[in-house]
Design a protein that fits this description.
By secondary structure, the chain is an alpha/beta fold. It contains ten helices and twelve strands. The chain folds into three domains: about 110 residues, Response regulator (Rossmann fold), CATH 3.40.50; about 100 residues, Helix Hairpins (Orthogonal Bundle), CATH 1.10.287; about 170 residues, Histidine kinase-like ATPase, C-terminal domain (Heat Shock Protein 90, 2-Layer Sandwich), CATH 3.30.565.10. The strands form three sheets. The protein has a five-stranded parallel sheet, with helices on both faces.
């Protein structure tokens, strides 16, 4: 940008002389023929780098004009060089400096001296202007930083409030879940007695009047029996599911082979009737709750038998391996060592897109008229595994079978361990 210089002199020839000397330097000039005219110009324009002003002018001399100029706050930054034909004494020189003058140039003007002095003040103006621009930038940056800090503090406060509310909600949900599990346990427990009586009286009706009732009544009695048994199985599963939630579990070092053997003994009739081949490799000793591991194995092997293909002999394989483990949700490596137990079958399988949904409560992929069950078994398996600080996943293809992978940590929390 071109620097502006205000030239103030009552003689036009003096103004033209100064302009001609300084014009090659590329300055922009504004000229005033009196102090009053200079004041009028300065009412609207403040961006002058320098004022060159004659001392001896009619009406308002240079000293008086300078005094009036510096009364305005916006003009105090403009340096004034007085141009005079007289060599004033120290008293007059002091008066000029007191009004705000920064220097004097004497007539006749030495062009080199004028250019040198004006150059110094123009250079100073440029540097001050750059400093001012830099200061404005720093002020803007500071404001932005203050705004960013304020927004960050507000965000942190919002996050703290949300975390606090989240923790409160989690506590309420945990409490509600425990209350719900207790209610389910108590309700299911209390339902068993009237259900037993219903089944008992239904049996009495059947045996006492079996020879006197017609086929339709026999069908009704049979359906009561089937519905009662199905409800009995459902109550049993709900009791077991809710029991895992509010009873404190303790882990002991257990032989998984022994637990598996007990489960296979319980399923001996189903295995024999369905001609199932069960192959099991040696399983390790692990810190587990054996009371919960039994229904885990029972449900997974029972499902393998239940969902078998009619035209293929059912095979179930149970084996294990040690692994660093992967988190079930993110797939990332985790530090704790895991024992992975596989329960593999060659049954009807399912679409892999349902691999997470099947572990939901009461989630069934088939009608109960096709395959018996309560829809709680896999949800119970998931809950048991999570109670052991592990996770369970499934891989499957339709008509090619399924494999359920149970990942249990080798080391359990100390406070939940007990001596075997």
């Amino acid at each position: 940008m071109q620097q502006k210089i205000l030239l103030v002199d009552d003689r036009e020839d003096n103004l033209l002389s100064i302009e001609s000397i300084l014009e090659p330097s590329g300055y922009t000039f504004v000229k005033a023929n009196s102090g009053r005219e200079a004041l009028k110009i300065l009412l609207n324009e403040f961006d002058f780098a320098l004022i060159l002003m004659d001392v001896k002018m009619p009406n308002l001399n240079g000293f008086e004009t300078a005094s009036l100029i510096y009364q305005r706050e916006k003009l105090k930054h403009i340096p004034i060089i007085f141009i005079t034909a007289n060599s004033y004494g120290d008293e007059h020189m002091f008066q000029g400096y007191m009004t705000g003058a920064v220097d004097y140039i004497y007539k006749p003007i030495n062009p080199d001296l004028l250019r040198a002095k004006v150059g110094v003040f123009i250079d100073l103006y440029k540097k001050n202007h750059r400093l001012l621009v830099q200061e404005q930038k720093l002020v803007a940056i500071n404001k932005n930083l203050e705004l960013e800090v304020h927004e960050r503090k507000a965000s942190e406060e919002t996050v703290r409030e949300l975390n606090h509310k989240l923790l409160e909600n989690i506590e309420r949900l945990e409490s509600a879940n425990k209350d719900l599990d207790r209610f389910a346990f108590m309700a299911s427990h209390d339902l068993q007695e009237p259900l037993r009586k219903i089944l008992m009286f239904n049996d009495r009706l059947r045996y006492k009047y079996i020879d006197t009732i017609d086929d339709e009544v026999k069908m009704f009695i049979s359906r009561i029996q089937q519905s009662g048994e199905r409800m009995q199985a459902l109550i049993k599963d709900i009791l077991l599911f809710s029991k895992t939630s509010f009873e404190k579990q303790v882990f002991i070092e257990s032989d998984l082979n022994s637990i598996l053997s007990d489960v296979l003994t319980d399923l001996e009739t189903e295995i024999f009737d369905n001609q199932v081949i069960v192959e099991s490799s040696s399983l390790p000793f692990l810190l587990v709750n054996p009371v919960l591991i039994r229904p885990l194995f029972f449900n997974l092997i029972g499902n393998a038998i239940k969902y078998s293909r009619k035209d293929v002999q059912t095979k179930v394989k149970i084996y294990s391996e040690y692994s660093a483990g992967r988190n079930g949700n993110t797939g990332r490596e985790v530090k704790n060592k895991y024992c992975r137990i596989f329960v593999e079958d060659n049954g009807i399988g399912f679409d892999q897109k349902y691999s997470e949904q099947i572990f939901g409560m009461f989630k069934r992929l088939h009608l109960h008229t096709q395959y018996e069950g309560t829809g709680i078994g896999l949800a119970l398996c998931k809950k048991i595994v999570e109670e052991h600080n592990g996770f369970i996943t499934a891989r499957s293809r339709i008509n090619e079978g399924s494999v359920f992978i149970i990942s249990l940590p080798v080391n359990q929390p100390v406070e939940r361990m007990a001596e075997a």
